[in-house]
Amino acid sequence: MIAVIDTSSLLSLVRYYLPFDKKGVLFEVIKKKFETGEIILLDAVYEECKYVGQKAILKKLDFLENKNFLKENKIIVKTEDLIPLAPAKFLNQLKNQFVANTFQFCKLTEAEFEVKKKEFMESADAKLVMYGQRLIKENPEKEIYLVTEETSSANDMKLFKKIPAICEHLRISTITLPQLLEKYPEVDLGFE
């Protein structure tokens, strides 16, 4: 199983789970999953972590700031050259199926839409989706999940749909952090 993790899930991990991890069991499991490549951290998500919640993610998961650990275990996946599997089809879907706010979309000129599209394609959300597609194609025998706390409902006035809605259309499985932790039998925080 491979899990590509979103900033929202990492933030939930450090805010709502690690404070109850008194023996460090969960911390060590998560660290080990990063080391073995079972949890993947994209560079775009890593960059978001530097600015979210007063760097709470990087402070609590301090191994993510250890340059030797990151380099030795190849933790951060570079996405600068990442493109969709079928670029023309993906860009067409972006315009015709992944727009969440049609009212906002209708008010945009073609040039304004191109700017919004470019911004989205460079976002962590888009990189997560594109990387998820690539992983599924390259590893058809493995369970691949995109881990996010986002919901499908468009409640933030953004132009494009949220990760779960896009992933559902592209047949990429999404799960939340609690669902991911359920898949790790070695995680036992003593709640019974």
From TrEMBL:
The lineage of its organism: Bacteria, Pseudomonadati, Bacteroidota, Cytophagia, Cytophagales. InterPro entries: UCP008505 (IPR016541). It comes from the Bacteria. This is DUF4411 family protein.
